[in-house]
Design goal:
heterodimer, A: about 475 residues, alpha+beta, six-stranded mixed β-sheet, three-stranded antiparallel β-sheet, 18 helices, about 45% helix, B: about 260 residues, mainly beta, nine-stranded antiparallel β-sheet, five-stranded antiparallel β-sheet, 4 helices, 19 strands, about 45% strand, RNase_H2_suB_wHTH (chain A), nucleus (chain A), RNase_H2_suB (chain A)
Chain lengths: ~475, ~260
């Protein structure tokens, strides 16, 4: 028998009468058989489920980090000792699912999902359990459209109007679909509603016929990408921004000695003008600007950079410019100054967001989507910005080598790159390790001047 | 599997001692004929070739050819644990991960046992043809060692000039120059103290002294050493052992006669 596993299942209704069925579909991207979870009311009940209620869930396996928990300890709700719930060492404890370890191997095993009410029943069960498999299986709603897309956009299907039944009949996994429809009758309505979004329809009698409309499909997908781009998790946006932010040293360098460096006089003029404009803006605006950052040449430099990128220098950008502060030293933890302009951030988020779609679309569809996305949101500004950034970083590194040697460590730590210094040290370490295996004599002999001496291979031929 | 018992641990000790400063890692090729070794130094200008015939061991058993890839520095560390007079036994399986060495003291009832991890060394063997050298010089190995040591204080390289009259080792360096000339002579009491020169034509070649000094670490293996020279080929420095040899080859320095 398979060992139990820990699942986080979709919550049931208040009465908790909900069943789950595991189904197998071809994965839309890889075409590998993949398990999905059907969340449906039990057969005994005939509940009319809202069209918008998700019913199909994908199962995500969360790998435990190398240094994280290696197994699950499942305890009753009221343990004999006051053990905090985070004994499982998970950042996000999942109270209900802990008790609900299921056996996913039985393909159509139905099980009761416990809901919040279960907490009261749990104390009866005093047995604890250690589960060896430390993975966490999370089920998240998935749009059934993704499973249908490949079939819908296939040549044969996309030519004719078909009824929903015919559509599903033609699907390679038609048996699974009919299983869904029998177990969860109202899913048919939901499916139809989803199809409306991407299909042209004709009514034939009381039946509606569907045919995929590629414009609608692309619109839907792109709107999804845009939505994802706007809702990327903070950790990811931070990561993107970090990659795109200007080198801290550039700011510092500009703030200190680079100002004296010969600069393009035109730059200076723009700079001043901009400063004035911004001062005007500042006085015009109220003091509700949240991030009271110090104004210095570095900021102006940033803005100048942005305007050079032909980007709309929107006055609502987050960094206001109080001009009175003449302090040159920057707090090292003020990376907002270095963030790329929001337009660039958005573009970068889009390129990341579209990658998420990759696992839901067939490769052909994905490339089409990517292409379309890039025509709607041209990447040129982002590319130009990255070019600019490269130069800026190179300049900063050069500047640092000359003047900022003492602050090198902190700056590079903040930027999270492998420094030249580190690489060199690594190289030295390796060489040392290598040398440790050599005897003193071998090392000495390596230094001997062998000028004028031919290699042995030029005298003696290799044996076959 | 390999099982080779050596009556005197010092033979292997001296061999490894002599080549460990020339070569870092190398394969000991074991077959029913004995144990051979061929390796070049890191600069590939010198080559060492060693052979210990099976009759030097008692008993010697090697069922199939085995290459024992060993770091010589590690091997030396283990061999230092053996006394010169100890009986040494080498053991390895057919697909060995490690080489087992046991040292038995003949006087005291003492037996020590060591395992050395082996490594895979990708080494190509060079075919060394039998050569008739223009000059074959045999001299006491201690004498050769002394000449090399003395001259290396003055210069990086030495010219070896062999004529009918004798062999002249000459060098010149920043502080001055120097030379040692040996005339052939025969010591009636001790054959090994004689100097012999067999010459078909005169030769004059220049060699790196640092390498020669390195070769001389094998001096304790044999009371005599042979130097074989011919124009345009590597110098052969050979130390003969009871059941085998240790040979060094060194490329001459060309176009640096100043």
């Amino acid at each position: 028998m398979a060992s139990p596993r820990v699942f986080v299942l979709p919550a049931g209704d208040n009465d908790g009468d909900v069943a789950h069925t595991l189904l197998t579909f071809r994965h839309p991207n890889t075409a590998a058989p993949t398990r999905y979870l059907l969340h449906h009311p039990p057969a005994t009940k005939d509940v009319d489920v809202d069209v918008d209620t998700p019913f199909l869930y994908e199962i995500l396996k969360i790998a435990n980090p190398v240094h994280g928990a290696r197994s699950w300890l499942i305890t009753p709700d009221i343990p004999p000792l006051d053990i905090p719930t985070d004994v499982v060492r998970d950042d996000d404890p999942i109270p209900e699912a802990d008790e609900d370890a299921e056996n996913p191997d039985a393909d159509t095993e139905e099980s009761k999902d416990d809901n919040d009410n279960d907490k009261e029943d749990a104390p009866n069960d005093k047995t604890s359990l250690v589960i060896k498999d430390a993975h966490l299986f999370i089920t998240t709603p998935v749009d059934p459209l993704y499973l249908l897309l490949a079939h819908l956009s296939a040549d044969k299907t996309s030519r004719n109007f078909l009824s929903l039944d015919d559509l599903l009949d033609g699907h390679p996994a038609s048996a699974t679909w009919s299983q869904i429809l029998t177990r969860h009758p109202s899913s048919q309505k939901a499916l139809a509603a989803r199809l409306l979004l991407i299909c042209d329809t004709v009514s034939a009698g009381d039946e509606t016929m569907y045919r995929v409309n590629h414009d609608k499909l692309t619109n839907l997908l792109i709107s999804r990408v845009e939505a994802v781009a706007k809702a990327l998790p903070t950790s990811l946006t931070n990561h993107i921004n970090r990659k795109l932010s200007k080198p801290l040293s550039a700011q510092a360098a500009v703030g200190t000695w680079k100002r004296q460096a010969p600069t393009n006089p035109t730059d200076g003029i723009i700079n001043d003008k901009e400063l004035e404009e911004e001062v005007l803006q500042e006085t015009g605006e109220s003091a509700d600007t949240a991030t009271g950052d110090t104004q210095d040449a570095a900021d102006a430099q940033l803005r100048r950079e942005a305007s050079r990128l032909n980007l709309n220098e929107d006055e609502s950008t987050s960094t206001p410019q109080p001009a009175d502060d003449a302090s040159v030293t920057q707090p090292p933890d003020a990376p907002e100054d270095l963030l790329p302009p929001p337009e660039i951030q958005y573009l970068a988020s889009l390129t990341h967001a579209v990658q998420f779609m990759q696992s839901y679309l067939s490769p052909a569809l994905y490339t089409a989507l990517e292409k379309e996305l890039h025509t709607r949101h041209p990447l040129d500004p982002l590319e130009r910005y990255q070019e600019e950034l490269k130069e800026l970083r190179a300049a900063a590194t050069a500047a640092m080598d000359m003047s900022m040697a003492h602050t090198k460590r902190t700056i590079e730590d903040l930027e999270g790159g492998v420094t030249k210094e580190e690489a060199e040290r690594e190289k030295k370490r390796k060489k040392k390790e290598d040398d440790a295996k050599k005897s003193v004599g071998v090392r000495k002999l390596e230094k001997v001047n062998t000028r004028g001496m031919a290699k042995m291979t030029s005298f003696f031929k290799k044996k076959e | 599997m390999l099982e080779a018992r050596l009556e005197q641990a010092q033979i292997l000790k001296k061999v490894v001692e002599a080549i460990k400063d020339l070569v870092q890692d190398c394969n000991f090729d074991c077959n029913d004929g004995g144990i051979q070794l061929q390796a070049m130094d890191n600069s590939h200008v010198a080559l060492v070739s060693m052979s210990l015939r099976s009759d030097g061991f008692s008993p010697f058993r090697c069922d199939r050819n085995i290459a024992l890839g060993i770091n010589l520095n590690s091997l030396m560390k283990v061999l230092r644990a053996a006394a010169n007079e100890d009986i040494l036994t080498l053991k390895a399986e057919d697909q060995p991960d490690s080489l087992n060495l046991t040292f038995e003291s003949s006087q005291a009832d003492r037996m020590s046992e060591y395992d050395i991890k082996l490594m895979d060394i990708d080494q190509e063997h060079l075919g060394i043809p039998e050569t008739d050298y223009a000059a074959n010089i045999t001299l006491p190995s201690a004498e050769f060692q002394r000449i090399c040591r003395d001259l290396s204080a003055l210069s990086e390289s030495v010219s070896i000039e062999a004529t009918k009259e004798g062999v002249k080792f000459a060098c010149s360096g920043d502080i001055g120059n120097g030379s040692v000339t040996l005339r052939p002579h025969t010591n009636v009491e001790d054959e090994s103290k004689s100097t012999k020169i067999d010459l078909t034509e005169p030769v004059n070649l220049t060699f790196s002294l640092k390498y020669l000094v390195n070769f001389c670490k094998a001096s304790s293996l044999s009371p005599t050493v042979s130097l074989c020279l011919s124009n345009e080929v590597p110098l052969l420095v050979e130390y003969k052992m009871e059941a085998g040899y240790l040979r060094f080859y060194l490329a001459p320095k060309i176009g640096e006669d100043e």
